[in-house]
Amino acid sequence: MERLSATIEDAKVCKISKLWRRKPPGLTFADTDAVIVTAKTTDRRTVSTTFYVRLKSDGTFSTSALRAGGRVKQQRFAKFLKHYKLAKDVERYNVCEGVADWKGKSVEVVPYKRSGYIYVP
Q: Cβ distance 77 to 60 under 8 Å?
């Protein structure tokens, strides 16, 4: 799997209810927010990845969920934050406030077809 270096151009948190009237298949009741990260590679490719998470009212999130599918999504987002050193303490990290600081941070992108996705180990 070839990986390219990229820089985060934009990152934002949206309510899933603002994106769709009905949740698409694969999203559960617990998935309430979408963290959308857009990065640009050195060869001018734009890559966007969406993380579906359940944020608490204070902007933090928990990696422990009741269902296995929800837990996997939460842990994947936690791995993203840890791997790219966006947060030191994931359990206490306020995603809503911290997302503004992600611009300009470097990430790795896996090219796929015309775009790709952000690599998360």
A: no
Structure tokens at 17: 């209810």
First to last CA, the chain: 12
* H-helix or E-strand spanning residue 77: helix 68-83
What predicted TM-score, i.e. pTM, was given to this entire model?
Answer: 0.88
Predicted confidence (pLDDT) per residue in 27-84, tens digit: 877 788 999 999 999 888 899 999 998 888 888 887 776 666 668 888 899 999 999 9
For the chain, the domains span 4-118
CA atoms of 25 and 82, how far apart (whole Å): 28
